[in-house]
């Protein structure tokens, strides 16, 4: 310690420690540096840190001697200094050479630290100098059990334990020396700062009075300029004035050391960026970590190294990181960005050698600025860097965006690995306020610092307000009355509006006091570029290039003035282009004018953000139409642009091209697929009036497809298209006029009718015809009268169409239609059809047409009257007596079409008409009116002398007898005249009761009924099967023969009847199946039809039936199956029951010669019970082969 005259006391502080506490060595230096600016110490004491690694003041390490010898030779010994600080944790250090360094007890020194400690203690005990402070870190030492040096590390830890054990008496445990414990570097800072201040206080107060009472030396403040950063974040160069976050810095350093990724999460303005910049980075640099760290140029206000924000060069975060990596590797930033976008994991190839720190500030820009499609890929890049083992990634994240991170799985995993929640400072808030002021030799008026602490409170949002207030307070205090007095006073603080009002007050004063009207008018133009509103309505900063901000000199003036007021910041981006941005987002909430404006235009700003992001995504996907916005989403964009006066960038301007302008090419392409054209037309209708001008142009397109599509859309658009279409009628070409008429036809408004009148006089008949159709479709009195004039048009097609259209106008159109009937035949027929549409009141004119001389008119009138239905019947019936046979015939045809039964009587009378055509027409009509009661009376007409009449009557009777064949069968039984026609009519009947007529006593009736039922096929089977057990043999036989005639369709039912309880049914079914089987042998069987062979198993069972008739029927049936039935017969020959064997013998005999070979085989087997039946059958067959075979077997061929 030295002091002379008016000079302050000079203290030398010796720092001793092993290398495992490099962070603590930095803390000691920092505390020593800070304490000398304490108000009590400043000017009274100066310090000198003595340490081998002291920057600019360490000892040279000679290669020819031990490190400790170099330190001893180049630096004062600990015992020659005023204060010695010893810090130990897990290592004691490197042993000193022995016996060069020998302890008083003759043993070796275990490290240089131990030697320095004992040298200091010996000096203190000998002369009271130096003061020796020993600190021991108590946090756990984490060791890797698999590490190769784990034993050495454990040995070092035991040496430390032994060192502190020697500070106590081994016998009594009494303390022989003192030391303090701490848990983290910040804990050491607190303890050492307190201890150092206490020592300095004692030294100053113990100094000679003359020295102690000297005024402070006139020394320049250690910190030039404001010690408060205002709205900007602290950077590494601000570390000397960064206070109050020591604990958080310790925690962050520890977490970064333990994890490749750490997110500092806190509210906006909570100091996240400052903690990383002035806390973490500064601490790592002071500790000599050797990492490649980001650096900040205070003069140029620019970062270098791996520090960036995701959106600092636009919406491409790959370009942001590439801009930082490229200078480190000499590569091209654009090429690096392109490579990383394709291969995010390739970021590891561009990282600096060794270990590096990547600082991603304002990480929430990943969700506010970055194009959404790039987010997940870029997170892969971050993950690759964090997991590389060569890079530690630290990000700052606003807490209100934390949930967005969890939506990205890789990012959620990274957050699980490392994050540091950052809240508002509480007990250290005073340090944040007072300690920077000390460094700048500033003083707070009594009570002001405490007032500011209270006004700030625990709200993290208040920290940027506090920083800005302190900066403004500094500027108000350092140059008062043209002189520097360093007093921060309460009056200035209150004039600023306090912590909560300083930013807003300053911004409003600058806006109203330093800007003219023109500059103030540029407010919206400027801030719409500086503010971004996300989808949740939160306001965040943008960093536009100055060139993007329109408004000319007034806007530039506003930017310059607000920059000078430190409310805006100007810098340059990675392309060296000037950019501007809000100094801190706190301005958005603190300046009422800006907050109100943001609230008023929030939706517009949000929409601008969304449309810009959507445009970027569209461009990223090759301008794929699937990413374009529809008209409904674009209309608010146009309104937003109008309100904000925004000028969209080229990509966004292209993106917001009106949807209908994009759809028009689809309509103009005549070759486009129909469904695409239809979809485009539907969308144009939905879009509405904005499409009319473009569609009117297409109405005049040479392509009919294009014209028709445009006209269709215009018609669907309605009233907004009328004026344009009328203009086309007056000036367009024939095709365009035709298309315009078609469009007006669709528009159901009164104006459209009136505007079509000129089209009825168009020189082109096609246009006039189209106008007629349009008027008919539109309806109304005006349209009716216009159509009345058109029935006399020079073109027949127009007249015909006009007459036809008038039918839709009801009775009031009758005069016009009657006039048309005097014009020409085509118009007359059209009028007739129109009258038909009018209804009953049109009957009389139609009857006139029916009886007129014009055959075509009669045809059309007849069709119309038929369509009128029963309304016309009373007036048609009398015409059955008309003198004109053609009229009578047409009346029959009309009555048939109407189908009203009330006309049956007159029609029956018409069967006596003199004209065969009328009689045939009457028969046809009787069938159509359903005159079933007239059938008996119609039977006589079956003998009509005219062949066509007879067939017409037969057809009619058949149609009327569909549900009751009784009259026909009665006639057939009575052998009435026209029996062949009765039979023909019967063939057309479908009455299920027809089956019962197989019981008729008349064989002819049974035969005819059987023929009809065979033609029915399968529908007749159920009824026929019911007759099989009938006791009436002829009926039963007829049913069986009919089923045999039906064939395959009857097989399933017949097989079922083989198991019937009625013997008659079983025997009849067997015989029928035999007939079908025999038929099958003679013809090819229909593919897929039920085959009669399916009956063989059932017939086999029937051979054993208790009824002889059934057994005989089964034998007969099997015989008809021929050789197909032989396997069944062989089995039955061996049956235990004699009747069964006998039935089998009969079957074999009836099969005949085809059965002989098999029977001989059976007869040769003496062991089978079938031998005797087989021999019997062979004797009955009696063919030469059978008899010879028996002889060969030694069996007498004939019975004895």
From TrEMBL:
Xref: PROSITE patterns: HEAT_REPEAT (PS50077)
Residue intervals of the Novel STAND NTPase domain: 227-625
One Pfam family cited in the UniProt record for this chain: HEAT_2
GO MF term set: oxidoreductase activity
UniProt xrefs under InterPro entries: ARM-like, ARM-type_fold, Armadillo, HEAT_type_2, nSTAND1, P-loop_NTPase, PBS_lyase_HEAT
Protein purpose: Catalyzes the hydroxylation of the N(6)-(4-aminobutyl)-L-lysine intermediate produced by deoxyhypusine synthase/DHPS on a critical lysine of the eukaryotic translation initiation factor 5A/eIF-5A. This is the second step of the post-translational modification of that lysine into an unusual amino acid residue named hypusine. Hypusination is unique to mature eIF-5A factor and is essential for its function.
Listed name of the protein: HEAT repeat-domain-containing protein-like protein
Organism: Actinacidiphila bryophytorum
